User: Which sequence fits this backbone?
């Protein structure tokens, strides 16, 4: 259970809508209640959905920063699907156009190899085996599900490490775009971080760890550098103690 709860640090700190938050809370509740009652098969299904949600948030960030690369990766999709994937207003909308196994292909945009993608996607095949009536229980004890969770968390950490350059670009873009106090959405730095960084980019605590180590010196020549520094200090004040 302890390994599983670590996944929360890889999921967004907060969400754009209440329904998204309620959905994620539902998945956590479903996982924990089934795990503690020994219904490991159903617990694994809920954890799989949490894992796939994490993947979709990563793909969302990739689309934000590498939009042209993302568009190039859509070659072969039907025109209607391309339009909907590019215009999706939530990471959850990706699965309306993609099979679960297809979404991992976009991780190649951050340097993941075919071998990596195969490792990330193997859990979909396992989930498929238990999501249909087979007459057998795949996860029938705590040892087996704990081993599965440990393996999944290893791949979560692997994806997160590959995402580091993307997170740095997400944060850099946020700092530059929000530097002008007169033009940004909120004058208050805390509010601007909450809406324009955390919500818009579905930023997690693990992402924030990357942001907190960001080197501001590359923006020293920016005319609004004092505001950039103030935003960074606000992030440090809010989250440094949590990481």
Assistant:
């Amino acid at each position: 259970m302890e390994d599983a709860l670590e996944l929360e640090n890889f999921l967004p700190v907060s969400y754009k809508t209440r329904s998204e938050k309620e959905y994620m809370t539902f998945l956590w509740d479903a996982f924990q209640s089934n795990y503690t009652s020994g219904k490991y098969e159903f617990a694994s299904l809920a954890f799989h959905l949490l894992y796939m949600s994490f993947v979709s948030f990563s793909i969302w960030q990739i689309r934000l920063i590498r939009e042209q690369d993302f568009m190039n990766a859509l070659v072969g999709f039907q025109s209607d699907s391309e339009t909907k994937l590019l215009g999706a207003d939530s990471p959850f909308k990706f699965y309306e156009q993609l099979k679960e196994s297809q979404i991992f292909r976009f991780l190649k945009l951050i340097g993941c190899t075919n071998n990596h993608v195969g490792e990330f996607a193997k859990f979909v095949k396992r989930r498929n085996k238990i999501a249909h009536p087979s007459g057998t229980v795949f996860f029938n004890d705590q040892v087996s599900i704990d081993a599965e969770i440990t393996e999944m968390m290893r791949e979560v950490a692997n994806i997160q490490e590959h995402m580091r350059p993307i997170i740095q670009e997400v944060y850099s873009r946020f700092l530059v775009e929000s530097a002008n106090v007169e033009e940004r959405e909120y004058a208050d730095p805390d509010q601007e971080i909450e809406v324009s960084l955390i919500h818009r980019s579905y930023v997690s605590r693990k992402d924030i760890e990357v942001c907190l180590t960001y080197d501001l010196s590359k923006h020293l020549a920016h005319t609004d550098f004092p505001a950039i520094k103030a935003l960074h200090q606000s992030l440090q004040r809010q989250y440094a103690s949590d990481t």
Notes: Residues 40-65 form the longest helix (26 residues). The chain has a mean pLDDT of 89. The CA atoms of residues 102 and 121 lie 9 Å apart.
